[in-house]
Specification:
heterodimer; A: 114 residues; mainly beta; five-stranded antiparallel β-sheet; B: 112 residues; seven-stranded mixed β-sheet; 11 strands
Chain lengths: 114, 112
């Protein structure tokens, strides 16, 4: 069965700190890895990664994928209170019954204090 | 607004009842999904439909029956509700490859 594991499960930091969130996976047919941010309601898309070693960046957030070691990290620099959320990692399947299916990790709860 | 919408946002009901949740997307996507998020925030896929055809059907009790009248709508009907069905149900849409999926606001179902 496909598995996605995130660490840490929760993290409390102060504004201005830099955080690194981890996601490791074991899937039968890997196609992509996605990061989502979930505040009070719906998850919102952050990044999709398909190739190893290519960093995706959006403002203070960046992410990179290592397909050999089967993990990804999400970095947030100069954190702000608005970054407080649950960060979800998901892996997309590539073929057969996995095609189109996203398997999510359990999420990392990030709390940023002023 | 272009979006994925769900109704109702909250649903409180008694065990044994039957209820439905509706989902609509106006993003022009071919594929729609239902996810269940439990109290520990674990998001798990239940079903996906591509252009009205069932593509993914995870090991979900057959009390749950999705219906897609057209590719912009995917409804979820639940029969004989149980306590364990209490969760937030999210509808999402995207392409069949599982690229970026857009999520609806969720329906919080509470079974008493």
């Amino acid at each position: 069965e496909d598995k996605v594991v995130q660490s840490p499960l929760s993290l409390v930091v102060h504004e201005g700190d830099t955080v690194t969130l981890n996601c490791s996976y074991e899937v039968t047919n890997f196609r992509s890895l996605l990061w989502y941010k979930q505040e009070k309601k719906a998850p919102t898309f952050l990044f999709m990664l398909t190739s190893s070693g290519i960093e995706k960046k959006s403002g203070r957030l960046s992410s990179i994928l290592d397909k050999k070691e089967l993990f990804s990290i999400l970095n947030i620099t100069a954190t702000q209170t608005g970054d407080s959320a649950v960060y979800l990692c998901a892996v997309g399947g590539a073929g057969g019954t996995s095609y189109g299916k996203l398997t999510f990790g359990q999420g990392t709860i990030l709390t940023v204090h002023p | 607004d272009t979006a994925v919408s769900q109704t109702p946002k909250y649903l409180v009901t008694q065990m044994g009842n039957d209820k439905s949740i509706k989902c609509e997307q106006n993003l022009g996507h071919d594929t729609m999904y239902w996810y269940k998020q439990d109290s520990k925030k674990f998001l798990k896929i239940m079903f996906s439909y591509n252009n009205k055809e069932l593509i993914i059907n995870e090991t979900v009790p057959n009390r749950f029956s999705p219906k897609s009248p057209d590719k912009a709508h995917l409804n979820l009907h639940i029969n004989s509700l149980e306590l364990g069905d209490s969760a937030v149900y999210f509808c999402a849409s995207g392409d069949r490859a599982g690229n970026e999926q857009f999520f609806g606001p969720g329906t919080r179902l509470t079974v008493l």
